[in-house]
Design goal:
- By secondary structure, the chain is α+β, with helices and mostly antiparallel strands.
- It has one domain: Creatine Kinase, Chain A, domain 2 (2-Layer Sandwich), CATH 3.30.590.
- Helices cover 38% and strands 16% of the residues.
- It contains ten helices and ten strands.
- Strands 1, 2, 3, 4, 5, 6, 7 and 8 form an eight-stranded mixed sheet that branches. A two-stranded antiparallel ribbon has the order 9-10.
Length: 348
């Protein structure tokens, strides 16, 4: 069942579960067990349109310093050549018009992320339908089995995570964060394909086949940076809300850590109704953490309400098209296992 199309009864269930809650509680733990990195995409504010690039960067950096964040500017090429550095990076974003990225170093402290998001609000950074928020979770030195566990669980619960996102970030609707599960007929096919892999290169090719749009355009990307390996989660819409980001990063950290520890959703989970599958997600991988669960349900409710009240031209509803072809519909190639092609479906 695709959780991005939850019915009204699920919405009422969530509302009833959280009745009386005035505000979403936020994670209190600032230090997370696994290092992570964040990438935030923004549009320069209208007030900066008349400024030169150097003036834009200077004013942005001044705000970040005001919020206690040390950052350094890199042009697009240099930012990729230097890789991870100890300070935050301000980088031009070639996929955005008048846009930029704020990229963290490898960190474990959510407080740094909160400071950066507060700085972006203070600066007046803007969002559009194509600004996104990506999270890398450190997987350096992890075994093939541990990475395989993460991929299996993501295939099983991709639709669960999608339920917290707007329409243009659900399923296979976004060319820059294409569905991993759409490459497989069902989770059983995916599990079998991953089990046949004996190295990370095979897991990479199997979980994120080439699309012609670049090496990392799936919601979950296994990324080898040479001196490190990360799991990149791209499925979140752009945001300026520090509390929203902190809850998402903590959830992903728990999800990956539990998978590394050997927890894998049984295949029977795929046949469960939407709410039951979601409960397996919480109980198995998120340690039944009440605060994380409450945040997650609030996110789903928020998306359900927005679907009823938000205009079609909202940045959260506008379709995300490829700049290479404005009429392009995301094409998901079939994965070939042995000599038999696997027939792809949008979502099982």
């Amino acid at each position: 069942m695709n959780l991005s199309k939850m019915n009204v009864s699920v919405l009422f269930f969530c509302c009833a579960t959280l009745a009386g809650s005035v505000a979403v509680r936020q994670p209190t733990e600032d230090l997370l067990p696994l290092n992570f990195g964040t990438e935030f995409e923004y549009i320069f504010p209208d007030s900066a349109l008349s400024l030169s690039d150097d003036e834009k960067i200077a004013s942005l950096n001044a705000i970040m310093v005001k919020h206690g964040v040390k950052a350094r500017f890199y042009d697009y090429k240099a930012s990729h050549e230097v890789g991870a550095v100890p300070q935050w990076k301000i980088v031009p974003d070639e996929s955005l018009v008048n846009g930029f990225e704020v990229v963290s170093p490898p960190i474990s402290d959510l407080n740094q992320v909160r400071s950066v998001l507060n700085a972006m609000k203070d600066y007046g950074a803007q969002l559009s339908e194509v600004t996104d928020f990506h999270v890398h979770v450190d997987a350096t030195g992890k075994s093939v089995e541990q990475i395989r566990n993460v991929l299996k669980n993501f295939i099983m619960f991709e639709a669960v995570m999608d339920a917290t996102q707007p329409p243009n970030h659900q399923g296979n609707s976004n060319v820059w964060m294409q569905s991993n599960s759409a490459h497989f007929v069902n989770p059983a096919t995916a599990y079998t394909a991953f089990d046949e892999c004996e190295d990370l290169a095979c897991l990479y090719d199997t979980s994120q086949p080439a699309t012609g749009l670049g090496p990392r355009v799936h919601k979950l990307n296994l990324a080898d940076h040479g001196d490190s390996v990360t799991l990149e989660f791209r499925g979140h819409h752009g945001t300026l809300e520090a509390s929203e980001v902190a809850a998402w990063v903590k959830m992903l950290n728990m999800f990956v850590q539990s998978s590394f520890g050997g927890k894998v959703a049984p295949l029977v989970t795929a046949a469960l109704p939407a709410m039951d599958r979601m409960n397996v997600f919480f109980d198995l991988l998120l340690n039944s953490d009440d605060m994380v669960k409450e945040n997650f349900f609030h996110r789903i409710i928020d998306q359900q309400l927005k679907s009823l009240t938000t205009s079609a031209d909202s940045i959260y509803n506008k379709p995300v098209l490829s700049p290479y072809d404005p009429n392009l519909v995301p094409v998901v190639p079939n994965i070939v296992i042995g000599e038999k092609p696997v027939i792809s479906k949008a979502l099982y």
